Amino acid sequence: MRCPLATATLRSVCRRRSVDIGIQLLLLGLLAWPVPAAAQALSSDALRKQAATCEQNHDWREACRLYDELLHRHRDDAHLRQAYQRCLRRYRIVQRHQDQLYRAALEHLTPAQALDLYVHVLETIDRVYTDRQKSSPAALFAQGLEELGLAFEEPIFVREYFPTVSPDRLAAFRKKIVQWQQRKITHRAEARQQVGAIGRTAQQLSSGGRPILLTVIALEFLSGACNALDEYTFFLTPGPYREMQTALRGRFVSIGVDLEVIDKQLVIHRVYPHSPAAEAGLKPYDHIVRIEGQSAGALTVERAAELLRGQAGSVVKLEVVPFDSVDLEIRSLAIKRAPVMAPSVEYSMDEPFTFELEEGMKVLFPVGRVTIHYFQESTLQEVKEALAALQTAGMKVLILDLRHNPGGLFKSAIEVAELFLPEGVIVISQTHAIKDRKWNGIIRADHPEALLVPMVVLIDGETASAAEVLAGALKDNGRAKLVGQPTFGKGTLQCVIPLDKPYFECMPAGIRITVAKLLSPHWQPYSGKGIEPNFPVALEGADLLIEARQILLQELRRNLQAMPP
């Protein structure tokens, strides 16, 4: 499985003010955890045992990888989803305190500001979160307490903030956390007061009673209020928040590659056109051996991508084995970083269909193919340009590939759907947070000039969120046949709300939060179910593409036979 974090391509953004959509909304599936081929070959029982061992060892990232693989096999297993959410929450705690930008921002946020920020986030959750039963002050306070208890179980948290406190005193404090769970909270002001009292108690654990400790405790409560709601809602510390903003625009400073792990080796998945990597001669499936002297085998995909990013004009040193190298000779490269555009769309002309008519006449039907990797701000324009180029080349039928597409911007998916739908329902959005009718309720297509060439859509278990909205709209309106495997099944809509200005100046962060539930044009939920293809095909890669061509050919013949002479 490819990890979108390889290009820092988590996507989002949204603003406050009753979430009135001067904003952009996010539709992303679960984080993509690259699972080694060896793990994919193991039985489910073996994967469960490995995941349990990882939990015992606090290897939350690996546990998430394994539970993610299990969820792909057993999508309706509630216990597996709970296990995934449990590990994901712990992973985010560790990730939060590894974020150097977050730790630096803590120094600029006073305890009083941190407590006010906590109340502000509670208000935001109550106003926009889709499930109001989960957003009461009592429920959010309890989740904050749980988050704090989990944080004290993580070595990085204790080492950073309570390095001199004895294990006995830490254990005694954790017992107090259990006692605080009995407190009755009915208002946000009470929650603020209690968090302040708990923070002052935590201060007394450490010699000197550093004020920053109260700030840290308040933000653990804030994080818990977000992170426990669902696996798509969480507090974005400054580092991930900045990456999301950059990725949303599809532009960042790097060398211009997507990365993946194949058999424990770091491999280039895609090279962006006209990028520094392309100019240096890098190609897909080239094996990266070292980055800046660090062995690539010891790096996560995310860390490798981070090393490739930097200031424009700076140089990154790589050692690479070309995929077609006979003698496995290592190339040493020094590539200058530059602003690059992460293309979300690829297109090509495939081999045409040939029909023999009466009197020996032959008619060619050129086949175009468009692949949408994810939905970002530029996707609509990219798809328009792809379709224009394919039509200029004579395209008469189309294959739209949405495999491995984790989603992205809701607005972009709606706009792309309208390119193919002259009319009809695209999706139903159920929310109390979004007031703009354009994005709330029944969202319809109104595009008389939509492209109407025959088409099929390729889907798989990693087609999620915004990609499911597009696929579902095309299927339910009878515009295209879906070929492949059932989609992921994520029917919720998120936005990223930056902290209000006074807090943002000290802590440039935000919260990603679920604001709507989505239904198909036939009023069926996407969550947990996904979309069933018209033609279930268990094949993958090029084999699925071959099968899709056959299905498209059959549909085209059927259409031709139905035409009047």
Write down how many β-strands occur, each being a DSSP E stretch of 2 or more residues.
Answer: 21
Number of helical segments with 4 or more residues: 19
Shape: globular
Gyration radius over CA: 25 Å
Structural class based on helices, strands and sheet pairing: alpha+beta
- The mean pLDDT is 87
Count of domains: 3
- Quick one: biggest sheet? 6 strands, mixed
Query: Cα distance, first to last residue?
Result: 49 Å
Assembly level:
single chain
Strand fraction equals 15-25%
Show unreliable segments: 1-24
In a nutshell, what does this entry contain?
By secondary structure, this protein is an alpha+beta fold.
Topology:
Elements: E1 26-28, H1 37-41, H2 44-56, H3 60-73, H4 78-98, H5 100-106, H6 111-128, H7 137-151, H8 155-161, H9 167-180, H10 188-205, H11 211-227, E2 234-236, H12 238-249, E3 251-254, E4 257-262, E5 265-271, H13 276-279, E6 287-291, E7 294-295, H14 301-308, E8 315-321, E9 331-336, E10 338-341, E11 345-356, E12 362-372, H15 379-392, E13 397-401, E14 407-409, H16 410-420, E15 423-430, E16 441-446, E17 455-459, H17 466-476, E18 481-484, E19 492-498, H18 501-504, E20 510-519, E21 535-536, H19 541-562
Parallel strand pairs: 12-13, 13-17, 17-18, 18-21
Antiparallel strand pairs: 1-14, 2-20, 3-10, 4-5, 6-7, 6-8, 8-9, 11-12, 15-16, 15-20, 19-20
Helix pairs in contact: 2-3, 3-4, 6-10, 6-11, 7-9, 7-11, 10-11, 15-16, 16-17
